[in-house]
Amino acid sequence: MTIKMFVVVPALFLLGGCVGNSKSLAPTLSSSPETSISTPAVPQAEVGQMDPELLYSLLSAEIAGQRGAYVQALASYLDAAVSTRDPEIAERAVQIALFLRDSEKAATAVSIWIEGAPDDISARKAAIIVYLALGDQSSALVQIRQWFRMDKAPLREKVANLTKVLGKNPVEALKIMQNLSVSYGENAEFLYGYSLLALKANQPATALAKVIAALDLKPDWEAALTMKGRILSTDLTNEQAARELSEMAAAYPDNARIGFAHGEYLIKKEKYEAARDQFEKVLEADPVKYEAMFRLAGINLQLGDLDAAREFFLRLRVVPKWTSQAHMFLGRIESGLDNYKDALKWYDQVSDGPLVMEAGLNAFLALGKLGRFGEADTRIAALARRYPNQAVRFTLVRVELLTESTQYEKAMDVLNSALDKNPSQPQLLYSRSLVADRLGRLDILEADLSLLLEMDPENVNALNALGYTLVDKTQRLQEAEKYLEQALKLRPDDPVIIDSYGWLQFKLGNYDQAVVFLRRAFDEHPDPEIAAHLGEVLWASGRNKEAMNIWYKALLADPESEYLQGVKSRFPKAFID
């Protein structure tokens, strides 16, 4: 079966944050145990009172850090810490060592820090991170117990901070929590933190057991109830968990988070009507629960209620956090209805944030649908300048638009230009092979797919495309069989490949076997091309009524299909009223 030209344009996504200031030296632990970049500062000793060698060492460290030479900076700071036993210098060395993930040097520095500032809780937290990185749980436990004895804050605050310190390494964290259970296992806050870390470690059974134990101690604790609901919602196969989650949502109708967890579970189970009812209850409990509103918009899209979905997105567009996503989906709703002018207006309102590029691509496609190709080219060129790392994707989107409008020669020119700059790019090669097929350039198609298979012998799409083309356009059936058998071996349940193999059997004269494969493909994926193939094999086998039935049903579903129109022209007797 041929592979239709397509470009994967992901749904809404979040881009990662930018890297911190390149001139910053190293992480700071003053406010959080997690590493983050901070502005360097020479320790607070009076510069005039410093030993000249020490001053030179510290200034060298700072200059090295400003230049990004963090290894040199660490060496200078660590030497200074060892020679002076100064806790501030040692702290700085710990920060840089953690930034570089040099646990051995961090351990040397943190011991000096604790020695010089034994009451500094930040030093204890840093030591926990260092010892866990070294796999030294016993030393980490000593520091946790020391911290908890020194800190006068309520246990719940200490546990909350501990979960943050341990959260980067949740598997090791569970071993720590197991050891601490001897002392704190009867405390609800501790059990809640244990549950949270277990969930992070992807151990939902442990997480559930610990949060249930917490609720035994504090039955109406809302945070623990919410955690329990969240855990129950992750298990899609446990009917008992599903019943319990449903019962919790009914028992605590004012707890929006439990209701939200139940709604999420129902979405995962594809129970969209029930999910809609649940999220509507969440909105009643918390009318400004915008996450629930967003879910409701999506559920209504899934259910085909575009008016309801549009209404929710219109409400969300005035909420700053959700404005861009709302505009994007409003544009997609209109695009789906072929209202491309209205869609373009919505896409153009996505002016900042991570969805700008996605909106620009959708606007480009909308302009193409409107026949405004000059404007579309201007848009895509501007996007390419703004996002140079996305050049391949922009090329593929341009080619998609050109092929949809049957501008195959121009699509080939665009791909040739892109491949001149990047001659071995797999997506571009595959795309050009498809355009070559449209232009009847089997030489280009075969060359590009063969190159793809040289680079990746298990490229299933290339195996299928080359095999099918040889079946459909040449007499090289034995060669085609080799490619299609390999594709089928790699992806035995793919209806597209099953269709290609069935078409091969037809060309080989194995009609009965061809029907078996093609019917299986059609049952899995009632595509017009598969319908055309199956009907043709049935007709050739003398099963005319079956063939006509397949073709008529396919035409009702997709009357404009080029494959079915081809069938009508080749088998006019089948379509006489």
How would you describe the overall organization of this protein?
The protein is mostly helical and 577 residues long. It has a domain at 47-152: Alpha Horseshoe (Serine Threonine Protein Phosphatase 5, Tetratricopeptide repeat). It contains 31 helices and 2 strands. The two termini are 30 Å apart.
Task: Write the SSE topology.
Elements: E1 26-27, E2 37-38, H1 52-66, H2 70-84, H3 87-100, H4 103-116, H5 121-133, H6 137-150, H7 155-166, H8 170-184, H9 188-200, H10 204-217, H11 222-232, H12 239-251, H13 256-268, H14 272-285, H15 290-302, H16 306-316, H17 323-336, H18 340-347, H19 356-369, H20 373-386, H21 391-404, H22 408-421, H23 426-438, H24 442-455, H25 460-473, H26 477-490, H27 495-507, H28 511-524, H29 528-540, H30 544-557, H31 562-570
Helix pairs in contact: 1-2, 2-3, 3-4, 4-5, 5-6, 7-9, 8-9, 9-10, 10-11, 11-12, 11-13, 12-13, 13-14, 14-15, 15-16, 16-17, 17-18, 17-19, 18-19, 19-20, 19-21, 21-22, 21-23, 22-23, 23-24, 24-25, 25-26, 25-27, 26-27, 27-28, 27-29, 28-29, 29-30
